[in-house]
Structure formats: C-alpha cells, structure tokens
Amino acid sequence: xxxxxxIMSLLVISFFNVCFASRKLAALVNEQPGQLLQYxxxxxxxxxxxxxxxxxxxxxxxxRAIIADFVSSLSAAAKPHPxxxxxxxxxEKYYHLASSKNSLSMFLNRQVLDESYSLGKLLTQKQIxxxxxxxxxxxxxxxxxxxxxxxxxxxxxxxxxxxxxxxxKSALVKGKNYKFAYIWVGNSETQCPGYCAWPFHxxxxxxxxxxxxxxxNDVGLDGMVINxxxxxxxxxxxxxxxxYYQGEAGAPLEAASACPGIYGKGAYPGYAGDLLTDPTTGAxxxxxxxxxxxxxxxxxxxxxxxxxxxxx
Length: 312
Fold this sequence. Notes:
Blueprint: H1 2-12, E1 38-39, E2 47-56, H2 61-73, H3 84-88, H4 92-97, E3 104-114, E4 122-123, H5 125-132, E5 140-146, E6 151-152, E7 161-173, E8 176-186, H6 193-196, H7 219-237, E9 244-245, E10 276-277, E11 284-285, E12 287-288, E13 294-295, E14 300-302, E15 307-309
Parallel strand pairs: 2-3, 2-5, 4-6, 5-8
Antiparallel strand pairs: 1-9, 7-8, 10-11, 12-13, 14-15
Helix pairs in contact: 2-7
C-alpha cells in the first residue's frame, strides 16, 4: 500500500522532477512487492572514489567554492545536524539491502578549468563525455559543470543534468581499460531557473508559490547543488546502469528522482516542505556543510522504510 501511495504521489508532482538523467516517471512498471526501486544485480559504486570537477566556461571562484564545499561535506563529520553527511548516509542502506560487503568513500580531488570554451558554447552529450574524460580514469566520478552561457543538448528541455559511465582512454592497466562514472550539471540561472532551480525560482508549471531565498545567495549554483546531489545519489546506487532503478534502463527512476519536489516534511506540489530558515538572510535550507555552508538537498528514497526520507 505504501508503495502504491508513493507512486500516486509521484504522478501528481511529476512536473517538479527536474528530469535527472532524463528519467521518465511513466516507466513505473513491474514493481516488486515492498520496494519501488529494483536491484538489477550490478555493482554499486564502491571503494575510495575521487570526485573531479571539470568547470566548463566562466565561473567565479566563489561559485566554484559552493560546489567544492558540498562535495567535501559528503565525507565530513555529521555535525551540526542536519548535515550533508547525514543525508549521504541514506545511500548506505542500498548497500545493506544488496548484501554488499563493500563501502563507498568519496573525496574531492582535482579541479580542471576550461574557461576558454574549448568545444564552443553549444555542446552535445558526446562532448560532455569527452570533457568528463579530463578527470581521472579509474575509481572516479568526473563531474562536468557547464556555465550559464553554455547550451547543452536537451538542457532545459528534458533534463537539468545526466549521469553515466564511460571507458577510460588513459587508465590502461595490464591491457584493461577501466570505466569511470561521470555526471553533468548545467547552470540554469539564465536559461531555465523555473525548471532546474526550483524552489529558488518560481516553477515553469503548476502552483506559483513565491521563490525561496537561496542559501548561498546564488540561484544558479544552489540549483546546481540540488541537481548534483540527486545525480551523485543515482551514481552511487546505479553507476553502470544495472544497479538500483525502476523503469527503462535508459531513463531510470533512481534514489533521488523517486522523490521529486520533496525537500522537507509536509511537501506537496508547489511547496518544498517545512525547511530551516537562516535568521540573518532568510534563506531556506535543510543541511549544514563544511566551512559554515548551508544547502538545500532533495529527499532520497529510503529502501529500509520504502518511503522518501528528508533531513527535516
């Protein structure tokens, strides 16, 4: 019953799904009893994994710091509460459910700057993968972040970002090529903030509630954090397309996209939920990070409770 209610809720608020990895909510079929997301017996992301940031286009140092601090917060101490690290621990439940003896430890590694727009300002998904190849070729998640003036195929139309995997051309060991996971997220501030940066901008569709104040005072970057967080959760639990997901393998519903538009308890279409408020700035958030950061992170589907789990 709980799973059926969750599916009905997803259909009602599906327009708030920012299409992480171009997932299709209509693909909710063949549900196994008790679990919304099916395990397809493939490997989960495990071991000590470096996160490498490839900045494509012009970003201010302060903007880069917002993302870098978020990544560092994943493995930081889970204090003060609620924290980014506590949010990330929800993904560990997928490993327990899969009876996996492996664990995942992520750390911020390299940052690569491409401020000259080496491939132009109109990119294809293939070029995104090529850019991701500038990161590490083994035991890595390479994150491509495109600036506000860069157009990417499908961006603002049916996606705000994607994740996948590719074979490394550089990490060749004993004649074997290794796979690396990659993520792409675009800055939607000038192109489609109502689509990819809600609730920090009024939504394109649905109830027009007032926009919330972004915790880092940057609608585009705070929106990127939401999308990056969602895609990181999907990458950990479904890195190579045969982990935890529901629906079509090419457009899966995953750990975060199973809970669209939910950031706090009491969320409903047009309302992100009951969030914390910074008394000085009035910004809305639900997680503390390193260096005094505050972030808004999406709910994750918790396989132990078969429900969407929020920090607040």
